[in-house]
Amino acid sequence: MTTVRENDESASTEQPAFVPPTAEDPVAAAGSELIGGPAGRRLALGRRGWWNPLRVIVLVAIGMFALGMVQKLPCYDTGWFYGANAQYVHACYSDIPHLFYARGFSTDLVPYFHRIPDAVSGGMSYLEYPVLTGLFMEVASWVTPHGSDLVHREQFYWLVNAGMLLACAAVTAVAVARTHRRRPWDALLVALAPAFALTATINWDLLAVALTALGMLMWARSRPVAAGVLVGLATAAKLYPVLLLGPLLLLCLRAGRMRPYWKALGAAAGAWLVVNVPVMAFAWNGWEKFYSYSQSRGIDFGSLWLMISQQTGNPMTSANAYAVALMLLLCAGIAALILYAPKRPRFAQVAFLVIAAFVLTNKVYSPQYVLWLIPLAALARPRWRDFLVWQACEVMYFLGIWEYLAYTTGGNNKGLPQGGYDFAIALHLLGTAFLCVMVVRDALFPEYDPVRWDGSDDPSGGLLDGAPDTFVLGRTARPARHAAPAGPRPRPS
C-alpha cells in the first residue's frame, strides 16, 4: 500500500512539463505580480485545463494585435488621405491603403502582368514585391468591394489585410511556442512585444515571418523537407529567410548531419521555383522588378548609411558595396562562432545573428523589419530584461521616423529634426547590436544561455539536437555530452 509520504516524495521528484519564465527570470517574476504573482507548480506541470500556454499566448497575441489596430485609428478615420501630414504626426502610417491605389489593385490590374500607369504609380512600373507577397495583396483586393468611393475602399482593403495578417501573427506565436517543447511561455515575448503590435499592419512582412517561424518549427521537429518548403515559400514572400540556410549549413557540417541539410536546401529551392517560375516565364519584366529595385535603390530611412551621410554630408554613393562588404564580414564572424565555439551554438541563436546582421547593414530599415527579428529573438535569448531594452529602442525608432517625416513634410517645423532622427537611428542600431552581443555571449559561454540551464542542447535544432561534433576548427572534435538532468542550477544574468 502506498503511503501519503511516498506520494509526496514521488510528487517532489516530478519534473515540470514547462519552464515558466517566472521561475528563472526576475523581470518576468516581478511583472507577474500584476496578474497574481509567479506561476505555481501546477502551471509548470501543465495542469491548467483549458488555459494551457498555447491558448493564452494566442489570445494575448490577438489582443496586442487589436491594440495595434486601434493605434492606427486616427489614420483609418481619415482614410490615409494622400500627402497628409497627420498620418506621420499620429504615427499611424501604413503602406497598405496607399498601395491599393498606387499599384493598381483599385483598378483590377494584375500584379507583374500589367504595367502600372505612371500617373498612378509615380514611376514604379510594376509591383516591387516578391511573388508570394504580391499574391497576398491580390487576394485581399478580390475581397475588397468595387465602388466610386476610393477612401472607403482603401479602408476596407486595410481591414481585409489586417485580418489576414492577424492570422499570420497567430501562426507565428503558435510556431514559436511549439518550437521549444519545454519553453512555450517564451512565445509571450512575441505576443507582448510592443514593436510587434505597432508595426504589424504597416506592410505585409508578417506573411514571411509566419512562414519562417513554421519552417523553424518543422526543423525542430526533425522534418527537413517540410522545413525547406516553408523557408522556400517564405523567401518567395520576402528575401531575408534564405539567409537562414547559410548558418544552418555550417551547423550541419559541424554535426556531421549534411543529409538533412541537402533535403532542406532542395525542398527550399523547389518551393521557391514552383511559386516563381510561372511568373518568370510569362511576366519577366514584372517579376524582376523587386530584384532590380532592391539592387539600384539608394540609401534610405533607418539605415546606418543614411545616418553617416546626414552627419558627414557624404552622399554615400558606394553604400551598396559597403553594405555587402560589411554583411560578408559579419557573416564570416558568425561562421567563426559556429565552427570555433566550445559548444555548437543553437540554431535559433545563429539564425537571429544572421538576420540581425542583414538588418544592421542594409541600405534601408523600415519600421516593420523588426518583425523579422522578434520571433528569432524570443528563441535565441528568452530573457525579458534584454528583450525589453531592445524593444524600447525599436519603439523609439518607430516614433522617431514618423515624427521626422512630420517635420520634413509638414512645412511648419513641428516634429523631430534631422539630429533627433539620427539619434533614433542610433538607438535602433545600438539596441539590436546589444541583443546580438548577448546572444554571442550565450553561444560562447553556454552557462549564460537560459535555454540550456536544464541541460538541453538545441531544442530548435531537430536532428542536430544532441549530435556529436565531427568538424570543429581549432581543436579536436569531441562527442556530445549527455544532457544534465533538469533541476535547479545557478542562474547567471
TrEMBL record:
<dbReference type="InterPro" id="IPR016570">
    <property type="entry name" value="UCP010361"/>
</dbReference>
<feature type="transmembrane region" description="Helical">
    <location>
        <begin position="189"/>
        <end position="219"/>
    </location>
</feature>
<dbReference type="InterPro" id="IPR018584">
    <property type="entry name" value="GT87"/>
</dbReference>
<feature type="transmembrane region" description="Helical">
    <location>
        <begin position="264"/>
        <end position="284"/>
    </location>
</feature>
<dbReference type="Pfam" id="PF09594">
    <property type="entry name" value="GT87"/>
</dbReference>
<feature type="region of interest" description="Disordered">
    <location>
        <begin position="1"/>
        <end position="23"/>
    </location>
</feature>
<keyword id="KW-0472">Membrane</keyword>
<feature type="transmembrane region" description="Helical">
    <location>
        <begin position="387"/>
        <end position="407"/>
    </location>
</feature>
<feature type="transmembrane region" description="Helical">
    <location>
        <begin position="419"/>
        <end position="440"/>
    </location>
</feature>
<feature type="transmembrane region" description="Helical">
    <location>
        <begin position="50"/>
        <end position="70"/>
    </location>
</feature>
<feature type="transmembrane region" description="Helical">
    <location>
        <begin position="347"/>
        <end position="366"/>
    </location>
</feature>
<keyword id="KW-1003">Cell membrane</keyword>
<protein>
    <submittedName>
        <fullName>Glycosyltransferase 87 family protein</fullName>
    </submittedName>
</protein>
<keyword id="KW-0812">Transmembrane</keyword>
<feature type="transmembrane region" description="Helical">
    <location>
        <begin position="156"/>
        <end position="177"/>
    </location>
</feature>
<keyword id="KW-0808">Transferase</keyword>
<keyword id="KW-1133">Transmembrane helix</keyword>
<comment type="similarity">
    <text>Belongs to the glycosyltransferase 87 family.</text>
</comment>
<feature type="transmembrane region" description="Helical">
    <location>
        <begin position="320"/>
        <end position="341"/>
    </location>
</feature>
<feature type="transmembrane region" description="Helical">
    <location>
        <begin position="225"/>
        <end position="252"/>
    </location>
</feature>
